Amino acid sequence: MSNSTTLRHLEMLRKIPLAPGKPITTIALHQHLTDEGFDVSKRTVERDLVKLTNIGGLYSENTAEGYGWGCIQNNASKFKGIQPTEALMLILSEKLLLKVMPIEYTLRAEARIADAKCTLNSDNAFSKWQEKLQVISEGYPLINNNSLISEDARKIIYDCVLKANQINITYQAKDKNASINYCLNPLGIIIRGQSHYLVATKKDSPEKPKLFLFHRIKIAEKNHTKMDAPRSFTVQEYFAKNPSGWLLKAGNKIEIVELKVKGFALDTLTNNQLADDQQLLQTSTQWTHVQFSCIPTYDLVAWILKYGADVTCESPTYLKVEVVRALKNSLNNYEY
């Protein structure tokens, strides 16, 4: 817990609302300081408020919730520190996201990241989280190779998405020998593990969204022309269909999926859900029946294969066929 009087005073001045905002009660202010890791009594907070009245431009009044405090000058603009909870979130964001963002974005955040590290290195209870909290990705950890796309191209992609301007790209598809030039309407960006996708429609088909892997974009150029926004869907609706999971069949149709699970797979689904409507029903001493709704993708196939003999796919038929095909092809690789 923090015992720094200076940091506590600064936090109090940041938290007290500017007039004509609703005053904050002493009880609420004390609770806020406790939540932020300060070891302080309510009586000490009351004494602090009296001391800060002159230098902080504070005033007090009776409210329905108790004695309240407000401020007649904007102290938040004078004391631009960072709260311990906000500092922790920024540090986690640096680990998870900043490495995949354009350098320009990262440079803008560096000052705040530095403030966050100073805050967590200070005498505060939240400082312990840096060594006690580890965030890892699902599956085997991979190292992202940022050199596969130029920083200039990455910045152009982000700028065009943000400003809703068309973008010209040269794209090297996996199954094509030659690169292809496209004029695209950029709709959004999907960051999926180590893979980053540009969600866009082609200029000549603005109602058909496609995914373009960043590392296959060889050249990116600004078009400076406003994009043609789709009329039949929103990018949020498209994201909700898990497009980067790759559909097993065209049509984006929601299906009822039925599985049998046991062992590690059952333990996972007892504490997590494959969908909001997931239902579990024990059918024997060994197996539990699972039913849920989703748009079947290769993601789901990979999840089923991940648990090996602990999962059996029962329906729909085409999902079951794909799982069996993948298993047979894998076994063929090990035949002597």
CATH topology of the largest domain: SH3 type barrels
What is the CATH first-level class name of the largest domain? Mainly Beta
- Number of DSSP-assigned strands: 12
Number of domains: 4
Main sheet specs: 5 strands, antiparallel
Shape, per Cα inertia axes: extended
Describe the strand arrangement of the main beta sheet, using strand numbers: 7-6-5-4-8
Low-confidence stretches: none
Helix share, percent: 25-40%
In quaternary terms, these chains amount to single chain
Order of helices and strands: HEHHEEHHHHEEEEEHEHEEHEH
Q: Distance between termini?
A: 63 Å
Structural class: alpha+beta
Beta-strand portion reads: 25-35%
Mean pLDDT equals 84
Radius of gyration: 27 Å
CATH architecture group name of the largest domain: Roll
Q: How large is the count of helical segments? A: 11
Describe the model.
There is one protein chain. This protein has 336 residues and is of the alpha+beta class. The protein has helices spanning 5-15, 26-35, 42-55, 84-96, 103-121, 129-132, 151-163, 235-240, 263-271, 298-306, 317-332; strands at 24-25, 58-63, 66-71, 165-171, 180-192, 195-202, 205-213, 217-226, 255-261, 279-282, 288-294, 311-315. Helix 4 crosses helix 5 (103-121). The radius of gyration is 27 Å and the shape is extended. The N and C termini lie far apart (63 Å). The relative contact order is 0.07. The mean pLDDT is 84.
What features would you highlight for this structure?
336 residues, alpha+beta, Arc Repressor Mutant, subunit A, SH3 type barrels, 5-stranded antiparallel beta sheet, 11 helices, 12 strands, 37% helix
